[in-house]
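Memo to structure team: turn this sequence into structure tokens by end of day. - J.P.
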Amino acid sequence: MLWQLLSIGVGGALGTLARVGVFAVAERFGSPGAPIGVLTVNVLGSFIFGLIVGLAKQPGGIVTPLEKTLLVGVLGGFTTFSTFAFDAVTMLESGRMLTAFLFIVGSNVGAILGMWLGIRLMSV
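Reply from structure team:
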């Protein structure tokens, strides 16, 4: 258990460093003020998350401890948006359309409102 926690922590640090690097490179190619770095990290992280989940489902695919290190650690440090995307796709694939819709809308609207409210409260 301790080894798993340590590997997730190291993975998180590596994911964070990768996020900073990818973000910096992406920002060089974007327009000033456009959040191209955030978009790049979120889309790339979701794509990599999907690759790992797909590989884990294959016979002889990656083992659970490595999967957790990569998904929770590395990609958790890289982007949490990939987890959101995975949860939404899982709901859609299982036919829970209303739940998926409420989750997608609620997460996005809730996060934006939460950010706005937090900023407003701190500027008073």
